[in-house]
Write a structure and sequence with these properties.
Length: 592
Amino acid sequence: MKKQRPGTRVSPDGFLMLLSVASLFIVMTACSSGKGAAEAKKPNIIVILADDIGYSDIGAYGSEIRTPNLDRLAAGGIRFTHFYNTARCSPSRASLLTGLYPHQAAMGHLATRPLWDEPGYLDDLNKNSATIAEVLREAGYSTYMTGKWHLYGMKASDLPVGAERDTTNWPLQRGFDRFFGHLSGSCSYWDPFTLLSGNRYITPGDGFYYTDAISDTTVKFIQEHPAGKPFFFYVAYYAAHWPLHAPEDAIAMYDGIYDIGWDSLRAQRFSRQKELGAITENHRLSDRTETIPAWEDETMKEWQSRRMETYAAMIDIMDQGIGRIIKALEEKGELDNTIILYMQDNGACAEPVLTNRMTQPLTDEEKVLKPYPKDQILTARKPEYTRDGRFIRSGRGVMAGPADTWVAYGEEWANASNTPYRYYKSMVHEGGITTPLIVHWPEGISRKGSIADQPGHLIDILPTCLELAGVKYPDEFNGTNTVAPEGLSLLPAFEGKKLDREFLFWEHEGNRAIRIGNWKLVSKVAKPMEFTADDENAWELYDLEKDPSETENLAARHPEKVKEMAAKWEEEAVRLKSKPWPWDENSRLQGN
């Protein structure tokens, strides 16, 4: 029998009980408003960002995955049900840290390597945007970060073997006192590419697993933080981005759970979401994408189940780490005066990632072990061999989990992760941009266990953090004029008040959207970064109050509304630097 990792599951009934218990202990204090709290004692702030996780993958939002610690935060705080990201990792991270739309921060695509000269697509975080960490450090906060950065346009000379490195956009140079994590996009959980401690490249030790390392280093930084000084902590988990890597004992805890298949899983989650209040009675379960077979027609059920079991284990391990962070705050007596905000960088990821073909047996050459030294710094995000010498396998049929595998869970399970929405990461329909937002702050939130149903966005995180700290955003920083944040403070929403917002805007790879009130205009290109005349007018229109799942396109019924909102999108696209688009026929996606 395999040893089980610690952790328990909170059932929907159990979560509802947590909500009921929390409501019995509502305490109205002078700290109920963020402004009053900031004047009395500046709160600690922890922003937790998860990677490539769908709207329904957390227990408090309908999942069967064990997330008791996030469920605890939700039961003692606020759940937002219409909170948005920017559909992709680098743009979302730029918006979160700067309060700007990604193109304003020069992060219109991906921080992989600089591709274009257009201001909105330099893909290297610009200097006209001061980060939360930069502003709060100037105001007396200690600033810490662990996890995935991905805001730096890496050049060949910056790789670990390079003699010269431009570190000006590394975390320590963008406001953080301490940093542990990786610079790039994708990497192995067992041996991460561009792993840093501060500004120094490092290699993992024995027994290393990246999610646990992020959690444990976060706990270490909290424990070492000096008393009497507030801190800002950005915990950017890499989970549950591909490749699907997790310890075998963690995967075993989900053995057999996903044998029901994606169709039944979506139906179960949809029912649970309504029970928990994560969606409304107006939500409809969107149709399964036509490219996804019915589960009964799937010919590789064991392989498919294993992919989802591994993905669930990755989220479970992250939640256990969040539990250790909560415990560290409790032990220091800081939990009550710490606001924790949990969110995700985009919707579920449907990228096939080397699974469009069947795996092939290892060749004689590939069977030969080719280990390399423990202190050797990686120079590729996906090395050909593991550090102990095993060839890294990919393709349909490769069972996810071990270090010598490199697969994702594909569109089939991504569709279930995004229940009840359509589409995925990179697209700006609700499935690509909707994220849970859990806010927990014992001293500052009186509406414990409540739901906030008004729209919010990652651009709101910086203004919220600054208001919590009683700090004004600077007009100038490091001798450079800054661009004023686009977002709003969420503090009024914590008290059930309405946010005064004109619109929300999206663009990624030609996928476009704008939300004004309850109306949303949205379009998906046929091919990313190959915008055509047909794409220009392929607008869809939805009333998100009556149809939040985007199942009934109203564009033909309201042509004047489409025209009006499309004009507004064009106007804002120019102002926000998402146009002109720099793409040409030679442009190709770089991946992340």
